[in-house]
Amino acid sequence: MIEPAELGLLDGFERALINDRLHLVYQPKISLSDGTLKRVEALVRWEDPDLGTVPPSRFVPLAERHGLIDEMTRWGMDTAFRQWKSWHDHGLECELAFNISALSLRALAFPDLVSDYCERYGMPPSCLVLELTESATQPLVTLMDTLTRFRIKGIGLAIDDFGTGYSSLMQLRQLPFSELKIDQFFVADACYNKDSRAIVESIIDLAHKLDLSATAEGVESQEQLQLMKDLGCDIAQGYRIARPLEGEKLADWNKIWSKSWSELVSN
Ligand code: C2E
Ligand code: MG
Ligand code: MG
Ligand code: MG
């Protein structure tokens, strides 16, 4: 039995998916060594004419519950890869990060599907990073075979929101990740709370000892940006750098950002 409120949402989501009315925005990530654009993360958006803006935290779990997540993933990959090619064709070089629901990884053929997208759009696999979050329904450790196939192909795997939710050290020990994303909760707190700072410092150290790169998410202030650089974090992402933006705005943002970096942080 689906509740009426969920049914309305589901109906709207299905229509948006079928009629190509979902939308992607892209949030830049920078290298903390020199401030340059490293990668962009594609984030899905849904503006419904009746329901208004529905956040991904509501409709992604909905899509997962009702068997629509694979279709959303395929739509999103096609859209994001096409955008990446357009940047590439205009001389704007960056990698692409894409959030993948753990449920989509149950299909053993999924890594080949992703390779097909890379080939179709001329993207080297090393330019792609898939961001994964552990969920209660599909623990990542059950997906070892699929994850290994991605790494063999040279595609990066990041563990998202590390330190909160279901993520555990067991995953770092067992799974072939290439990157660890420190959850924004710890990043936000690190400038004001010595315990959070100690946790961030230790996560960065842990990442490096495991040969993973570390990304700080949710960097909202200059102070946090400087701290993440000082702590040796590799990559940063957050509102202080850029909000998620429309694909065609990336080049303009990059021009402005590259001029401001040297004034923003000290070495
Ligand atoms: P996430 O992958 O951890 O994405 C980061 C979220 O933090 C995004 O929210 C982003 O807009 C937000 N954010 C970025 N910088 C800042 C900051 O400085 N401060 C604060 N307070 N927030 C910041 P968003 O776009 O609402 O996405 C929420 C979650 O929904 C994502 O978390 C991801 O798990 C999921 N999601 C988004 N797009 C997709 C998608 O295409 N597919 C799948 N499967 N999941 C997606
Ligand atoms: Mg993510
Ligand atoms: Mg995250
Ligand atoms: Mg998140």
From TrEMBL:
Residues 6-258 form the EAL domain. It comes from the Bacteria. InterPro entries: Cyclic-di-GMP_PDE-like (IPR050706), EAL_dom (IPR001633). This is EAL domain-containing protein. It comes from Sphingomicrobium clamense.
